[in-house]
Amino acid sequence: xxxxxxxxxxxxxxxxxxxxxxxxxxxxxxxKHSDKESCDQQCDAIIAGLMGIGPxxxxxxxxxxxxxxxxxxxxxxxxxxxxxxxxxxxxEGT
Length: 94
Fold this sequence. Notes:
Oligomer: single chain
Structural class: mainly alpha
Number of strands: 0
């Protein structure tokens, strides 16, 4: 996936740093089964989340990116657990 330069509130005076951090955060999204519209929406949302957290420097930017990555991973795990639970119940006939 080729990502454009992403406008974010600066966490650093370095545009390169800000773009790398934003792209790393976007890459934590699970987009395998997303269509283009859903992918765009998720990418916009994660950047909005990063901006909403409002990191003031590089360290806070890294923590914000990790917070969003951990959130995405946890939510994907919950989603998969619910799917597995639903499959188990249907196999049991409940």
